[in-house]
Every structure is written in C-alpha cells, then in structure tokens.
Specification:
heterodimer, A: mainly alpha, 68% helix, globular, B: alpha+beta, three-stranded antiparallel sheet, 3 strands
Chain lengths: 315, 95
Amino acid sequence: MTTEAEHLAEFEAKIAAEQKIEPGDWMPEAYRKNLIRQMAQHAHSEVIGMQPEGNWISRAPTLRRKLILLAKVQDECGHGLYLYSATETLGVERSQLIEDLQNGTAKYASIFNYPTLSWADIGAVGWLVDGAAIVNQISLQRTSYGPYSRAMVRICKEESFHQRQGYEIMYALAKGTPEQKAMAQDALNRFWWPSLMMFGPKDGDSAHSSKSMAWKIKRQSNDELRQKFIDQTVPQIEVLGLDYPDPEIRWNEARGHYDSGELDWDEFYRVIKGNGPCNYQRIKHHKAAHDEGEWVREAVRSYRKKYLTSQDEAA
Amino acid sequence: MSQEKLATYEVFVRSARGLDHIHVGSLHAESPEHALMYARDVYTRRSEGVSIWVVEQSNITASNETDLDSFVAPMEDKDYRHATHYVLPDDVKNM
C-alpha cells in the first residue's frame, strides 16, 4: 500500500517537474483547499464583476457601445461558469460555493466594490480592471492545476477584446471636449489605486502566497505582477494625454521599472473586510437575482425528474 | 462473428498532463472496463498519452450539421467580440 508520505513525494515530484495536477490525482488536502479558495474567489469575481458594468448597459452612449458592453458582460458570466465548473472538479458543490459567497465566507475581487459613476468609468474598468486581471490571468495559465490552467487559457483568449474596448472609450473621451477629457481623468484617478489593489497584499503580508507559490498555484508574486501592470500601463496613460493618477510615478533607469507611490493599505483592508462603497449592495443584488431565478431552477429540477422517470420506463 | 451485442465506445486520450483529452477514435467492447483495456492496446501503443477516457457512443448527444447556424455560426456581424475590431493608437504597442 502506498503511504501518505509516498503520495506526497510523488505529488511534489510532479510539481517540481512542471507537470500539471489533474482531477483524480492524489493531492495534499491543503493544496485542494487553497485551490478551492482561490478558484472560487476568481469565479465569484467574474460574476460580481457583471454588476458595475451592467449598470451602464441601458445608458451606453451609442448602440455600438451597448452591443460591445453586452458582449463583454456576457463573456464575464461565461467565465464565471468555466471557473465554477473547474472548481467543482475538486469535489465541492456549486451550490455550496454560491452560499459561501452570499454569507461572506468567500471573497471576490475588491475592485467590484467601487461604483461606476460615469460612462468614463466603463472605459477605465475595461482598460485598467481587465488590464490588471489579464496580467494576473496570463500568469495563471501556468498554474499547476490542469483544469484551472485550461480555464485561464480559454478566458485569456476570449478577453482579448475587453481591455481594448475600454481603452478605446478612454481615448475617445481623452481626445474629446474638455468636459469629456475631465471625465476620463476623473475615472483614471478613481480606478487607478483600486486596480493596483487587485493584485492583493504586499508579498510579505500575503497570507496564502508562500504555499501557493511553492505549489505553483501562483507563479508570480503579488508585487511582481503589480509592477508589471504599472510598467505596461504608464505609457498608455501618456498616449491618452492624461495626468498620472499618482504624482510619484517616474521611470527608474537603474531598476528598469517605474517607481510609484504607496497604496492606501487601510483602504484595501477596509474594503476586503466588507466596508467598501458597494459591498452591501453587490451581495444584496446577487441574492435578489438568485432568489428571482428560483422559478427557473425549480423548472429545471422538475424537468430532470420527468426525464429520469421516462428513462426508467424505457429501460 | 456478429458484434451486434457489443457497444461502440468513443476514445479520448490526454497526450500530456495539463492538456485536454482529444478524440482519437472508437472501438467495440462488452463493458466500459474492457473498452478502456482495448483503448490502451489500440490507441496508446507508442506513449501517445497519460490518460484515457472511453464514452459509450449512445451516451453522446451531438448537434446536427443542418442545425449548424443556430449552434456554431461564426457570427460575422459581431466582429466587436474580437480584439482586432479595435484600432489602437500607433504609440500603444501591446494590448
């Protein structure tokens, strides 16, 4: 009989050899739990992320913008489904995951607790929020869990238009009237810091990071990914002709990176703990939508019962 | 010899960890366990894979080619779903 220690040695050898772990493989319980936490959080973020953008579907300035926004929100919903399905391969039920979201046990990206106050915010969300998400997700394509990795590959491919449509909105406004440019600047100023917070706590303060890195669930640290996002985004701010949202941004030749100011970590922990501008509203809306959908689930269950009965009779 | 009593199984092989199982062919077998053994003998003689799925053909529900439009039409009128629809300023290198 294979002992626990032998299983563990085999598992760690696979990780070391850059082999993916697949459903049904033996895995340490802490690996499984850590993955469920991270993947469910990722799935919840896709789903809750529909709310700030959905807020503007009925008020998009043109039919073209409306079609684009609808297509994007539809994508986010699908991405939630990919991730819930991938999480279920770890032996957890989707209804449990949704319950955890609604009772506050599970988290979602804190960025979605900020409101979208103007049309320019939809531009900022696509450009900055999806931009930050893509940096993170490109890295996660190399995660050690097979179903998570494959979901990330699919999601990155489908999301390729999300950031560009946001930047296109920002560019149109930034090159428009002085009022439109001011709207774009305001959106950039408000979404910049929360977007940087999407990468999570500083490396030294991250509760789950060291184990996740050792097991290759995460492939790059929070601070590395945050820096990568800053480096790719600052030149894009310049193309828009907008002011930096952080006066401390400057190129550091010696480091080969942009330096930038310190994040407001008090705000970060306040929002994560549930006291951001929209936390209450987001979960309240999720519950309401879920409750309103109960008649659909009831119809599906009823059809399922009929189908199984007809199969039994045919057999 | 009649094989009417046997079921047809579709065989899917994962060539390496991390990749999707890909359909490689089918075979006849008397049970799922036998199908798996036969698939090993027939489809993975040259280290083609690390994992095999067998699915009884009658358990597969498939779309019809005549219904293609409603299932997998390319939706050419929705080119805004593609990144190339959006023209970036020349100064923006990668996005």
